[in-house]
Design a protein that fits this description.
CATH class of the largest domain: Mainly Beta
Number of helices: 5
Helix content: 10-25%
Number of domains: 2
Shape: globular
Distance between the termini: 64 Å
Order of helices and strands: HHEEEEEEEEEEEEEEEEEEEHHH
Largest sheet: 8 strands, mixed
Radius of gyration: 20 Å
CATH topology of the largest domain: UDP N-Acetylglucosamine Acyltransferase, domain 1
CATH architecture of the largest domain: 3 Solenoid
Length: 226
């Protein structure tokens, strides 16, 4: 019986059902779901794309954000215009590193990760702290985002980085563990962008001002007048 429900055909049927259920719900919002993407308990904005074999659970995507192939995004809120590259992991479950004798969930969880066996009466540890990824964030391929942290607006996460603490807005971080390499703009420019919140503008505004996005100087000069 287990083999029947875990067969490739069964997974395909489940994917088809989930895809069309979400397409019906978010059809007017132009949600795109590619082959064998797994999605459970998620919310979407406008013009999102979930690429092949990505897995999303208990997460939310803002307008125009996408998740590339093979990425896993759990328990995470993602802002608008955010680009998540392939093979990225974000918001995966936590294990206790202090206090408990063992890190195994048998001693603190009721989810039954070990073959369904549960020996505790209640959850004794927060396994899934919520993760927050801001607007206009770019996360490179193979990056790992630790559970429960916040990545600020406009940040860039370098490929292969392991992010273990909060990331400041418009900073570029990389390495293991990830550290600040530099900032994308000056303090004054960052303050200007955070106050403007261009990602909250409607599509007509974006179309009308699209040429300004090619050059920060022109962007700042023109929009400072508005």
């Amino acid at each position: 019986m287990t083999t029947i429900f875990s067969s490739p055909f069964t997974y395909w049927i489940k994917w088809v059902f989930t895809k069309w259920k979400l397409k019906l719900k978010y059809g007017k919002q132009h949600l795109q779901i590619e082959y064998m993407a797994e999605i459970k308990d998620c919310k979407f904005g406008y013009y999102n794309t979930i690429y092949k074999f990505a897995r999303l659970r208990n997460s939310e995507l803002g307008d125009f954000s996408y998740v590339a192939r093979n990425s896993q995004i759990y328990n995470t809120t993602v802002g608008k215009f955010t680009c998540i590259g392939p093979n990225v992991s974000a918001g995966m479950g936590a294990h206790p590193s202090e206090g408990f004798v063992s890190t195994h969930p048998l001693f603190y969880s009721t989810l039954g990760q070990a073959g369904g066996l549960v020996i505790v009466d209640e959850n004794l540890f927060e396994e899934f702290p919520h993760t927050e990824i801001g607007n206009d964030v770019w996360i490179g391929n193979n990056a790992i985002i630790k559970y429960g942290i916040k990545i600020g607006d406009g940040a860039i996460i370098g490929s292969g980085a392991t992010v273990t603490k909060d990331v400041e807005p418009y900073s570029i971080v990389g390495g293991v563990p990830a550290k600040i390499i530099k900032y994308r703009f000056s303090e004054e420019q960052i303050e200007f962008l955070l106050n403007l919140k261009w990602w909250d503008k409607d599509l007509e505004w974006l179309k009308a001002n699209k040429e300004l996005f090619r050059n920060f100087g022109a962007f700042e000069k023109e929009l400072s007048k508005q």
